[in-house]
Amino acid sequence: MASRTLVPLSSPPIRVGEPLPFPIFDAAGRLLLSAGEAANNPRHVERIHEIGMVEAEVAARASAALRAADAPPVDAPPIPEPIAPPRATESARLPECRLTALRMPSGSPVQVSQAGDPPLRLSATLVGVLPRAAVYVGLPAPTDRAPLLARGAPVGYRCVLGTEIVRFDTALLHLDLLPFPVAVLAYPEAISVQRFRRHARAPALLDAVATNYASPDIAAFPCRVVNVSVGGLQLECPTSGMRPGDQVGVDLVLPGPPPRHALKLMGRVRNAVATDDPETQRCGLEFFELDPPQRLLVENFVLRTLSDRPRGPAVD
Question: 155, 189, 236, 280 - which has most CB atoms within 10 Å?
């Protein structure tokens, strides 16, 4: 392995309890703190500022970012035209903004991808953002089925942030394998932010089994899930299957890379509308509180589905 070129830590400052966007070493090259770790003791932070070293490439990017931040703007950007709020079934494109302004929390699930045959798509974790310099992403351990990102090819970045999907294309600057794989991505020149309804809803045609616990015999019957979000789902079922107010459980399997996950999602029927078929109705189901694993699986399914939709160019 090539030796690292280390320089003293100068900027940006390390703060108590804040995850590091890059690893810190001592003068002998020994790892003090990994990317993503946090120093929770003020004395520890003070000592890191005294003896900490970082890779020269990281220090150069940080210095360049600070110089750019301090430089006066050449031309003030035009004020964007007001955007009408989206209707309930539509999304709206927002004006371009700085990635750091979105305040994406460390540890957020993200998706990174590269074109190829077959295309590479990895479920990853945001480690941190170095303003105007780099984005640090924790990757899964490489396997034969899931290799790591390759240099020289553009990298796509996708994540769900509340009721928005953030996307941008960038380049791989560096790949650290120890103590765990971390991709250092170039800070994007432009990002695309798409806002959805309170819970982003993804189309789905999934066979499922619904159980109506409000019926005297707790009837179970086949149904089809039409769309899904972290707040609920819409399904097609027999007209006699359920009515507003019923407590219902839906058993389904979310598609995606293996292993597939079988879920039982509990909720209450909010509405029921007729379809062209007199024996079929569409029902909106509002989930009871999802447990964290269920919520993460549904969020990832929504992210994968909406990210695969065609999109316009990023805003410059």
Answer: 155
192 and 97 co-located in one domain: yes
How sure is the predictor about 266, in pLDDT bands with cuts at 50, 70 and 90? Answer: very high
Token readout for 111 is 């998706």
Residue span of the structural domain in which 280 resides: 202-304
Strands 109-114 and 202-212, sheet pairing: unpaired
- Kindly state whether residue 239 falls inside one of the protein's structural domains: yes
As a whole number, the mean pLDDT across the chain is: 76
Query: Residue 178: what residue type?
Result: L
Is 166:305 a contact under the CB 8 Å cutoff? no
Run of H or E including 25: strand 24-25
Q: Within the chain, where are the H helices?
A: 42-51, 56-70, 292-307
Strand partners, 56: none
d(CA 154, CA 243): 49
CA distances from 46 to 24, 43, 50, 129, 154 (A): 13, 5, 6, 22, 38
Question: Beta-carbon neighbour count of residue 267 at 10 Å?
Answer: 20
Identify whether the C-beta of residue 229 lies closer than 8 Å to the C-beta of residue 202: yes
Q: Is 296 in contact with 280 (CB distance < 8 Å)? A: no
